[in-house]
Every structure is written in structure tokens, then in C-alpha cells.
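As a next step, the fold was encoded as C-alpha cells, giving this record:
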Amino acid sequence: MAPTTPPRDLTTEPRSNGNNEKRSTHEPSEPPLSSSSVGDRLAQALRDLARGEQTANTLEANLNNLESKLDELLASFGASSQDMDAIDGEDKQQQKRRSENEKGAAEGEGGK
């Protein structure tokens, strides 16, 4: 006796119209936005942007004020910000040399 195939359950399988077209079963999760809703969201985004710009301007003003105070403090010690930049550059060069020397010493010990 030949094996029989079980009957197809037509309630769970998608129907085919014979031309192998795929139908989208994805339904949009949210209804399209109305023009008033889009307008409200845009207005809120613009308010948020304006608030962010205001915050950025305040931060920039505070940083400029801090920089001025630091320059005054350095001047009271007889140093300028250019002097400090030069010292910082020298420190970085010294750190680089130390790092290179330590690396060379480590490689020299590893070769023994």
C-alpha cells in the first residue's frame, strides 16, 4: 500500500493565488499620523532644539569665564597661558622619551 499524505489544514496555511506572489501580512503597528500630530511633534522638536541651543550658549559663556579666571590666576603667578602650553608640550616630550626608553629596556631584557 502506498503511503498517504495527511490532509492539509487550510485554516492555518496561506492561500496561494497560483502566481507565487507574496502578500504582506505585516500590519502597521500605529495608524498614520494626522497633520496636527505631525505639527505638534515638529513644534516640540523645535522647542527642544531651542532649549539645547540655549544650554550650549550658557555652557560656552561659562567656559569662557572660567578660561579668563584661569588666565588671571596664571598671570598672578607670573605665567601666561602660552607659557603653560610650552610647559605642557615639554612634559609630553619627556613622557614620550621615558616610554620609549622603558620599551627599549623591556625588549633588551626579553632578548637574553
